[in-house]
Amino acid sequence: MRKAVFLWASLALAAPLAQACNQNVAPGQSIQAAIDALPKDNSPQTLCLQAGTYNIDGLLHIDRSNITLSGAGDASHILMRDDVEQPVLVIGDYQHPEPQAAIRNVVIENLKLTGNHSAKEFMPALPYLSNSVVIVRRGEQIVFRNLTLDRCRSACLLTERQSSNVRIEQNRITGAMWDGVSFNSTRFVVMRGNSVSHNVAAAITAENLEDSYISNNQLVDNGSHGAYLSNSYRNVFEDNTINNNKQAGIYLTCAIRTRSPLICWDNSMSADNTFKDNTLNDNTFGYAVGVDSAANCAKPGFKINVWKDNHSNGPNQQYPALFGRCTTADPES
């Protein structure tokens, strides 16, 4: 597919080769102190976490570029204390609502990160910061691979604030009180080979995701949708297994302007996305759409979403007589 080829080319620099450890950290030592002690010149640095449990009572943050944080798989376990109202790891500027600069070339690999089900979804001292397990804020060329993320108070993995070129591979993501993976204002993601399951809301939720390639993932047994796409464009979902989610396998909708009454922002309906060769079984709907008069598929210039060669045992739902055709598939499968 032409889109997929472009995306792989654009992300060629997003997966740097592993380097020898510049510094080792053992259980009982401070991960944050080790990060802070790295040279300030943004030279490439690899910080290696030995096997064991790393109990933390406050967020870890990476605010320098060109760093790899690598462990020994699930044996290197970063564990947030139960009563802490903070995320586990923030990549980028967390001290300002809008990050002051981009952070680039960060790799997080071969680790287990566990949050907690604390009382609040957002950090009380910094209410723009959710208590997700991992947050990327204006990150560029960021890699997550072979991670286990669990017990997430908000999302397990959140990208936001104009993040781009993010690669998410071979991770196990479960136990979020909201969504497993959340993309906000993000472009050029490659997400492949991940298991995202048993989250209270969706496996994937996107509020303005663009030009991304989502393939060969297991999006199963989640409390709402397999993938919820709001105000999202030119993304490709291919060869995913999207089964046994409580609502739709794929939900296409707009950006919400007000919730009471429910009104969309003008012309914000997700468009020009491609769904090909996915398996969608035992969801309430294969796909469903959420539209209104402000954001619908009959608007001039709307680019229809392509639904091709997917395998689904559930009905589809759209309203072509009222709001135009949102996908190339028929409303009922």
UniProtKB/TrEMBL annotation:
From the record, what ranges are coiled-coil?
none
- The protein's annotated pathway: Protein modification; protein ubiquitination
On the tree of life, the source organism's domain of life is: Bacteria
The record, for PROSITE patterns, names: PROKAR_LIPOPROTEIN
Q: Where's the Right handed beta helix domain? A: 142-284
Signal peptide coordinates: 1-20
Report the Pfam families cross-referenced here: Beta_helix
- Which InterPro entries does this entry report, sorted A to Z? Beta_helix (IPR039448), Para_beta_helix_rpt-2 (IPR022441), PbH1 (IPR006626), Pectin_lyas_fold (IPR012334), Pectin_lyase_fold/virulence (IPR011050), SCF-Subunits/Alg-Epimerases (IPR051550)
Q: Which UniProt keywords apply?
A: Repeat, Signal, Ubl conjugation pathway
Q: Which PANTHER family match?
A: F-BOX ONLY PROTEIN, F-BOX ONLY PROTEIN 10
Q: How is this protein named in the record?
A: Parallel beta-helix repeat protein
Tell me which species this is from.
Gallaecimonas pentaromativorans
